[in-house]
């Protein structure tokens, strides 16, 4: 989910305070789902999602997926559509969470769970479970990314060779993310940097 101050992402088919996102591939391919008019809430653009899931193609099927800033749920739903075994989504907005829960019901999905929660507090206080893929699209200009990444490492939320996707307003090379993470791919669209990292087992404790 995004803050009002972050760079805008393209939103398509927005009308009457409701936007639409399209699931690109998988069992729900081409399904269009609405998302609420919450300030700053914009799905990751289709072409960026397509690129990301091409990168993740060998790893997403059967994966346990975590999305702490789910927003519209575009990444979370795309992962489940493409065969992720289990998904956990969080968002601080009750409206966004209610919408995502409705989508899971519409899609008859029993492998995805979503709840209203502050991501940092949740990761710091809840009993950890190791996830294979994590999507991190926090609000910009709040310096949240280094903190949430450190919590994922310190609280053992990551599988040994987990993949972590980040969206940020600063270049991946200067984010100061955990030393156990290797930058696998990166791309820039407008003022937003998109990057995929892999946790390297040889450096992990």
From TrEMBL:
Key words, A-Z: Methyltransferase, rRNA processing, S-adenosyl-L-methionine, Transferase
Chemical reaction(s) catalysed: guanosine(966) in 16S rRNA + S-adenosyl-L-methionine = N(2)-methylguanosine(966) in 16S rRNA + S-adenosyl-L-homocysteine + H(+)
Pfam families named among the record's database cross-references: Cons_hypoth95
Single Gene Ontology MF annotation: 16S rRNA (guanine(966)-N(2))-methyltransferase activity
InterPro entries, per database record: DNA_methylase_N6_adenine_CS, RNA_MeTrfase_RsmD, SAM-dependent_MTases_sf
Protein name: Ribosomal RNA small subunit methyltransferase D
Family assignment from sequence similarity: Belongs to the methyltransferase superfamily. RsmD family.
Known role: Specifically methylates the guanine in position 966 of 16S rRNA in the assembled 30S particle.
Listed EC numbers: 2.1.1.171
Protein origin, superkingdom: Bacteria
Primary gene name: rsmD
